[in-house]
From TrEMBL:
It comes from Piromyces finnis. The lineage of its organism: Eukaryota, Fungi, Fungi incertae sedis, Chytridiomycota, Chytridiomycota incertae sedis. Residues 127-165 form the MYND-type domain. This is MYND-type domain-containing protein. GO terms for molecular function: zinc ion binding. The keyword Thylakoid does not apply. It holds the Pfam family PDCD2_C.
Length: 379
């Protein structure tokens, strides 16, 4: 039986991400593509609760809904601080989630084009660095917009604007612009397309995935070690598609609420907050998996690098649309694996890909499997 759960996978982008309403992007990293071009999110809504720096886009999902009509187009944006230290202190304060919605008939994506002159809606300027609303400008050249001082300073000092700004030397500017592009990319998470596929049923493990995480977890069950049941369930479940980075499981309206796949028994949220706008229940919409960490250019050797077990996103079950509000906040709930450091080792589950690409030797694979096993035992 199909599970009805959509799994998300990372894919190399084959085209630029544009606000095309017939094919609105779902993606990892890069700058946000705003559903509402007139009202991009303001940076003040996404400051980290620990370091106060602007968070960056982790991913955005186009997830339209039938009810109410105002949610005909609907995007969910998930942001986080790039500093792993902040996550260690409080993951709750290091993530933010917002949804943005538009009805089918709206002024931004008119059905008839071109519009008569003067009828095009306003498009807001965007920050050169972060992609949030760019209400500030470089006071010298007036040709770059910024969301805040943090981004302006980054552009000036790190991304070569100090040398590009008002520079008449065309040849030099051309070279510097190349360096600028690279440095601006480094400010964000690497950009990928997010593609989805329905989760396969339990008995259909794909042929090439039979080398075998599920066998490994069975091994664990045979040992006399008391292993967290939730962890085993988690590992077994994702073995159906080991490279999944996201699970989307929104159930609707009259159906029973869906549950995230928790990574351990402890620290499950006991109470889910209600929607701050309409008071409806917030329900589970999707969760990100530890495998996503593999794609974020994280320095694994750094003890303070970004890390998580899973992050579950809850949004208003009614898809409410308060008047004159462009971004409605949702909630995230977090779990590390109960054993510190296991998150990274857990990523070894991605070895299937690495084996296929010939990246790992047999010895290395065995070593990783042993590490995983020890990690579970010491739990
Ligand atoms: Zn922070
Ligand atoms: Zn900015
Ligand atoms: Zn300038
Ligand atoms: Zn609501």
């Amino acid at each position: 039986m199909a599970t009805g759960i959509q799994l998300g996978f990372v894919s190399k982008p084959e085209r630029p991400f544009l606000p095309d309403i017939d094919d609105f992007p779902s993606k990892i990293g890069g700058k946000p593509v705003w559903l509402n071009p007139e009202f991009p999110l303001d940076v003040e809504s996404v400051r980290c609760g620990i370091c106060n720096k602007p968070m960056v886009l982790l991913l955005q999902i186009y997830a339209p809904e039938d009810v109410p009509a105002e949610a005909y187009h609907r995007c969910v944006y998930l942001f986080c601080c790039k500093n792993g230290k902040c996550h260690k202190e409080s993951q709750e304060k290091s993530f933010k989630v917002y949804r943005s919605q538009l009805p089918k008939v709206n002024k931004y994506y008119p059905e008839q084009l071109p519009l008569p002159a003067g009828q095009y809606p306003k498009v807001a300027p965007l920050c050169k660095v972060s992609g949030y609303l760019g209400s500030k400008q470089c006071s010298k050249c007036k040709s770059e917009n910024y969301s805040c001082k943090d981004c302006q300073i980054y552009h000036w000092n790190n991304a070569y604007h100090k040398r590009i700004c008002c520079n008449d030397n065309e040849k030099e500017t051309l070279i510097l612009k190349q360096l600028e592009i690279k440095t601006l990319e480094d400010y964000l998470f690497p950009e990928y397309e997010l593609v989805s596929e329905e989760e396969p049923p339990s008995n259909v493990l794909k042929e090439n995935e039979k080398f075998d995480i599920s066998k490994f977890t069975n091994d664990c069950e045979d040992t006399e070690v008391d292993v967290d049941k939730a962890f085993l369930k988690f590992e077994k479940r994702i073995a159906r598609e080991p490279s999944q980075i996201l699970r989307y499981a929104r159930l609707h309206y009259n159906q029973e609420d869906s549950e995230p796949l928790w990574v351990c028994q402890d620290n499950k949220p006991t109470e889910i907050k209600n929607c701050p706008y309409c008071g409806s229940k917030c329900t589970f919409e999707f969760q990100i998996m530890p495998q996503l960490l593999n794609y974020l250019n994280i320095d694994d050797k750094n003890v303070d690098s970004l890390d998580w077990g899973t992050v579950a996103v809850y949004t208003c079950n009614a898809n409410c649309q308060p008047k004159d509000k462009h971004y409605m906040e949702g909630f995230t709930y977090h779990q590390y694996f109960s054993n510190d450091g296991l998150n990274k080792r857990f990523k070894a589950i991605d070895i299937k890909q690495k084996i296929e690409s010939g990246e790992l030797t047999k010895e290395e694979i065995e070593k990783i499997m042993k590490l995983k096993k020890d990690a579970v035992k010491s739990d």
